[in-house]
Amino acid sequence: MTGTAVISDRRLARQAAKRRRQRRGQAIAAISSIVVLGGLAVWILTSPGWPSVRETFFSWSEFRNAFPEVLGGFWLDVKVFVIVEIAVLIVGLVVALVRTSAGPALFPIRLIATVYTDLIRGVPTLLLVYLIGFGIPALRLTGLPTEPVVLGGIALGLSYSAYVAEVYRAGIASIHRGQRDAALAVGLTEAQALRHVILPQAVRRVAPPLLNDFLALQKDVVLISILGPQEAFRIAQIIQGENFNYTPLIAAALLFLIITVPLARLVDRLGGQTGAIR
Amino acid sequence: MSAAGTPVLEVRGVTKAFGEREVLRGVDLTVSEHEAIALIGASGSGKSTLLRCIDLLEEIDDGDVFLDGEVITDPAVEPVAVRRRLGLVFQAFNLFPHLTVLENVVLGEMRAQKVSRAEAEEHGRALLRRFGLEGRERDRPDDLSGGQQQRVAIARAFAGRPRALLLDEVTSALDPELVGEVLHAIRDLKTAGMTMVIATHEMGFAREVADEVAFLHDGTIVESGSPDRVLTEPEREETRRFLARLLESGRI
User: Fold this and answer.
1) How do residues A227-252 score in pLDDT, each as one tens digit?
2) Is the pLDDT of residue A91 over 90?
3) Could you tell me the residue ranges of all domains in chain A?
4) Average predicted confidence (pLDDT) for chain A
5) Which residue from A37, A129, A237, B52 could staple onto A155, CB 3.0 to 4.6 Å apart?
C-alpha cells in the first residue's frame, strides 16, 4: 500500500499546523495580557492621586505595624466561621428534610420551616445581626446568651442555614424518582431510602453551590464586628482611625483572601468536573 | 411455602386512575408457583402501572392483590414488609450510581433484611457470578454496559430471595445486541423455578419462556392463554391488531 506514506505526510502537516496554531494562540494571550494589565497599572500608577493613595493604603511600615494585631483578630473570624459553618450544615439539612417531608403530623413544623426560609432570606444579613445582637439581650431573659460573638454567630447561622437548606432541597428534588422507587423496591423504608440512596447523591450534586455559600459566609463573618467583637475588620478599623491610614484594612483583606481563594479554586474545579462528566 | 394450589400472586379486579385517566380498569391475573407470565400490550396499556401496583409503589383504587393468599393491598398492610417479599426490575435499571455494583446488590439485604455485611456480600458475589458479572463487583454502574447494568439490577432484585419477580420491560432500554444477555439471565431464573411476571415487547422471548401470555389492552386483560395459542391464533380482534402492528414494525 502506497497510501500509508501519503496519510503519514498529511498527518505530519496537520500536526505542524496545529503546533503553529497553538504557538500563535499563546503569543496572542501573552501580548494581550501585557497590554491590558500593563495599561491598567500605568493608568492607576500615573493617576494624580496615586502618591497619596500609595501612602494611605499601601504603606509597608503601617502594614508591618498593624499585621500582628489584625492577625490576632482574624483568628476570631476563623473560629466563628468554623463553628457557624458546622452548625449551618446541620441546621440547613434538618430544615431541608422537614420541608421535603410528607407526613401530616409534621405539617406545623413544615409551615415553620417554610416561613423561616422565606423570612430569613428576605432580610439583609446585616439587619439580622443587628436585630439579634441587640434585641435578644434587651429581652433580659435568663438562659439566653448575651455574648456579642455568640449572638452574632447565631444571626449568621440562622441566615446561612436558610440558604443552605434551599440548596439541599434543590439537591434532593433533583434526584430522579426512579431512585426512590428502586430503594423502596429492594425493601428499604422511606427513611432508609432517603439516608442511603437519595441524600448521598443529593449532597454530592450540590457540593459546589454549598461551598459557594461557605465562601460567602467566610466573608460575612466581619458583620459581627458591628456588635463589638474584636475581629480582624474591627481591629483594622480601630488602627486605621488612630493613624489615619487605611493599610490595616488591606492587611485584613489579604488575610481573608488567603482562606477564600483556595476555596474558590476548589469550587471552580468541582463545578468543572461535574460539567465535564454530565 | 404456600399450600398446594394457592397461587403466589393473585390480582383481582384492580383499578387505578391517575387523575381523570383510568389506566387499569379491572385487571384479573393469577400467577402460580414457578410460573412465568408474559404481560404484553401496547405502550401505555398499563403494564408498568400494573407491576408498580403489585409492588405497592402505586396505591390502587379498587380490587385487591394477594401474595401467597394474603391480601397485600389492604390499607392496614405495611407496604415495606410486602416489598421485601417481591422483586421489581425497572426498564431504566435505576441502579444506585453512588454505590458499587456489589453495594447495589447487597443494600436491600443489609438494610431491609438486616443480614450481616459478610453474609450479604458472599451472597451478592455469588449472584453476580451467576449473572456473568464476576470481576465487576467494585465498578460503578456508569462504567458498565446497559446489558451489564440490567443484569446487576436483576441480581439486586433477586438478592432478597423474593417470592416473585416483576420484570418491567427490562430489555426496552437496551441496544439490540445487548438484549440477548439479559434474556439469558431471565431464562436462567425461569429454569431455577422463579415465579415471574414479565412485561415485555419481545414476543419471541415470551413464546419461549412464558407459561402463559396475557394481553393487556385498554386497562383490562382481554385475552390470555398459552403463548402458542395467543400469539398465533388470537381469539380477540384487539390482540390480532396488536400483533399485526408488531409484525409490520418488524418486532416479531
Assistant:
1) 988 888 999 889 988 888 899 999 99
2) yes
3) 60-277
4) 89
5) A129
Instruction: Mention the CATH class of domain A60-277.
Output: mainly alpha
Contact B111 A192 (CB under 8 A): yes
Whether the pLDDT of residue A5 is over 70: the answer is no
CATH number of the structural domain spanning residue B79: 3.40.50.300
- The distance of A180 to chain B (nearest Cα, Å) reads 9
- A184 vs B57, B96, B156: nearest CB: B57
pLDDT tens across B208-226, in order? 899 999 999 999 999 999 9
By Cβ distance, the residue of A178, A189, A192 closest to B94 is A178
- CA of residue A40 relative to chain centroid, distance: 28
Instruction: List A residues 144-203 in contact with B (Cβ-Cβ < 8 A).
Output: 176, 178-179, 181-189, 192, 196-197, 200-201
Q: What is the extent of the structural domain holding B84?
A: 9-96+164-248
In total, the C-beta contacts within 8 angstroms joining chain A to chain B are: 61
- Average pLDDT (A118-142) is 90
Total domains, chain B? 1
- What's the pTM value of the predicted model, to 2 decimals? 0.83
Q: Do B90 and A181 touch (CB under 8 A)?
A: yes
Query: What DSSP character marks residue A198?
Result: I
B71 occurs within a structural domain: yes
Residue B56 lies in a domain: yes
Which long-range contacts (C-beta less than 8 Å, at least 24 apart) are formed by B136-141?
Answer: B136/B101, B137/B100, B137/B101, B137/B102, B138/B100, B138/B101, B138/B102, B139/B100, B139/B101, B140/B97, B140/B99, B140/B100, B140/B101, B141/B93, B141/B95, B141/B96, B141/B97, B141/B99, B141/B101, B141/B104
> Would the pLDDT of B70 be above 80?
yes
